[in-house]
Amino acid sequence: MTHLFPDTDQSPLRRVLLALAMAGALGFGAAGVSPALADDDDDDHGEIHDGLREYYERLETEPGYASSHEEAVAKLVRGREINVPYDYIATLMRIPNAFGEGAACVLCHSSTDPEHSYRGLDLTTCEGIKTGATEEPARALFEPGHAEESVLRRYLRNNRMPYGVPFDAPRDTENIRTIKAWINDGAKNDEVFRTEVLPLMNNPRAFGGFQACTDCHMSNQEPPSFHELDLTTYEGIMLGADPIANAAEGKEPEIIVHPGDAEGSALYQRLVENRMPAGIEPSENRDHPNIQILMQWIDQGAKCE
Fold first, then answer.
1. Residue 115 exposed, middle or buried by CB count within 10 Å (0-12, 13-18, 19+)
2. What does the DSSP 8-state code read for residue 126?
3. Res 74: pLDDT
């Protein structure tokens, strides 16, 4: 972290006040300013004892650790495995803006009757949440204890691609069917891929948006390519996302194409699945605290009591 006020002739209080003033002028919330603004000089600040040294060192490297809502939830709820009651989940389903600016979930999903509730999904009861969509193809939103792989997590976090495409853009177009058929037919590096699939990655209007896929995903390096995803070649597409970042953690890349399974392939999912609530801005926080809490409830077994 670059120190804003390194001069040692200013008092710690003066430095903090100046930092807060600058933060306000720049549009930052005061909560986002790290208290560790100046040199960690023991003569200037007094000697640091016990566990405070590690605490202040973390503030220097992770300013958000001090105060953000997301960090508070991670520390207090997820970090300590606090039990999440269904009553809290029921509240989230019923209030607007629970997972980012948008309508309450139950506005569109209030019954198992597809005539009156989108996809026959009832989010007004615990049993309905656990049952999932009843309209064909019927499917559960999650398996209790496995939030990370859940459909619900995907819909609350994943923006439909291309970035910013309107939620009501057609999802069963010829181009999207081409991608689906190619994957279901084995995702081969063949003439179909070279003449029908790959050109779609370079077409800014192929899937209802105004940016070509390759505008944002053009190499295995981030930056400039989001998620280190390369959609300019067959090898890049089949390698998947975050190959370098994941390798640093001893993990495999995130595979986006599973040959023979378009429905289970992120490349197809991102073209047809809208992030919820409908019409939410793509820039909304994908790790909203309430999403974290909902996922914790699922990981804890999605208990209804």
1. exposed
2. H
3. 75
Rounded to whole angstroms, the maximal C-alpha distance in the chain is 72
Beta strands in the chain (DSSP E): none
Question: Which residues partner with 241 through β-bridges?
Answer: 254
**Cis amide prior to 223 (ω within 30 degrees):** yes
pLDDT of residue 60: 79
Please name which of 104, 163, 110 lies closest in space to residue 134, comparing C-alpha atoms.
Answer: 110
Instruction: List the one residue out of 149, 116, 150, 113 whose CA is nearest residue 134.
Output: 113
Rounded Cα–Cα distance for residues 60 and 34 (Å): 7
Whose structure tokens read 């549009």?
27
Residue 76, helix vs strand vs coil: helix
The pLDDT score that the predictor gives to residue 1 is: 40
The answer to whether 58 and 1 are in contact (CB under 8 A) is no
Distance of CA 113 to the CA centre of its chain: 30
Q: State how far the Cα of 268 lies from the Cα of 3, in Å rounded to an integer.
A: 45
Q: What is the CA radius of gyration of the chain?
A: 23
What's the average pLDDT block by block, 10 residues per block, for the chain (305 residues)? 39 41 40 42 58 79 68 80 94 97 97 97 98 96 97 97 94 98 98 98 96 97 96 98 97 98 98 96 92 96 95
Q: Mapping DSSP to helix (H, G, I), strand (E, B) and coil, where does residue 123 land?
A: coil
> What burial class does residue 90 get, using C-beta atoms within 10 Å of its C-beta: 0-12 exposed, 13-18 middle, 19+ buried?
middle
Q: Which pTM was predicted?
A: 0.77
Token pair listed for 295: 């996922």
pLDDT for the residue 66: 60
Locate tokens 């309905």: which residue? 128
Would you state the pLDDT for residue 63? 62
DSSP 5: -
C-alpha span between 264 and 71 (Å, rounded): 31
Query: What is d(CA 264, CA 207) in angstroms, rounded to the nearest whole number?
Result: 19
